[in-house]
Design a protein that fits this description.
The protein is an alpha+beta fold and 270 residues long. The protein is built from seven helices and seven strands. Strands 3-2-7 form a three-stranded antiparallel β-sheet, with helices on one face. Strand 2 and strand 3 form a beta hairpin. 14% of the residues are buried.
Length: 270
């Protein structure tokens, strides 16, 4: 049908990847945008958008020598018993070219680092697209495994490997020291914050509780007046005003019982 033919045409447009290998970047970019437009018109084929343009896709990878030898001759890999590798990381720009290529691991250190980096820079990728525009692809990783013969290495190559290993070990130690220092700093800051919180919390509570409130101040101010009023009332109850006031009646003495009467002294009879 016509609909399926247009989608198939979108798939055919992916074959323009070859234009990138000839530096026909403008033509390739136009074809990619047309393919995205056709896919967007068919939501049922949305998975193709992610599959084709969701990340950088390799178009051309220049081969890297499978063995290491000084003159890049054609000796068979079987004659090189030792194994080595180089792992690099890089980004891709808006036209699919690797940028910021760097080695993150290699063994032996430095033996084929430069060769691998030089080849990786010649890789060609279909760019990653977002919202119809090419964007930078980040964090790509490539590992190249190869063979070599340690017995055939010259003294200069061995010295270069040893130098690279020392430099790498120093960098690793510095990075670890920086991480340890940062962790210690964060731990010290956390401890200091905890101690400050532990000290300041009780002080704030005590200050808040010890401060008199306005109601307490007014109540305390009224206490002397209330005490004075109580004294006046008590005096008024005891003495009536006026000169003709009769003396207060004295309470009659209680009659003492026989048990309370004094007993005669007891004398001893000779």
């Amino acid at each position: 049908s016509k609909e399926s033919h247009r989608v198939v045409s979108a798939y055919a447009l992916i074959t323009v990847d070859c234009l990138l290998t000839t530096n026909a970047v403008r033509s390739a970019s136009g074809s990619y945008r047309e393919a995205l437009q056709i896919i967007n018109e068919h939501p049922e084929f949305g998975h193709l958008k992610e599959q084709w343009f969701g990340a950088p896709r390799i178009v051309e990878r220049e081969p890297i020598e499978p063995v290491y030898h000084r003159n890049s001759g054609g000796q068979a890999a079987g004659t090189y018993p030792d194994r080595g590798y180089v792992t690099v990381t890089y980004d891709t720009n808006s036209v699919g070219r690797p940028i910021r290529v760097r080695v993150i691991d290699s063994q032996p250190a430095g033996l084929m680092d430069y060769r691998v980096m030089r080849k990786v820079r010649r890789f060609v990728y279909r760019p990653q697209y977002e919202n119809g525009n090419p964007v930078v692809g980040r964090g790509l990783v490539y590992r190249h495994d190869y063979r070599y013969d340690e017995r055939r290495l010259m003294d200069g190559e061995k010295e270069s490997i040893a130098k690279q290993e020392r430099a790498r070990a120093k960098q690793a130690a510095q990075a670890q020291a920086a991480r340890d220092a940062e962790a210690a700093k964060r731990q010290a800051e956390a401890t200091e914050s905890f101690e400050l919180a532990e000290v300041s919390q009780p002080v704030e509570s005590a200050d808040a509780n010890d401060q008199p409130q306005s109601g307490d101040i007014e109540a305390a101010a009224q206490l002397p007046e209330q005490a004075q009023a109580v004294d006046v009332v008590e005096q008024a109850d005891q003495v009536e005003p006026g000169d003709d006031a009769e003396p207060a009646e004295q309470p009659e003495p209680l009659e003492s019982s026989e048990s309370d009467a004094p007993q005669p002294p007891v004398t001893d009879i000779p």
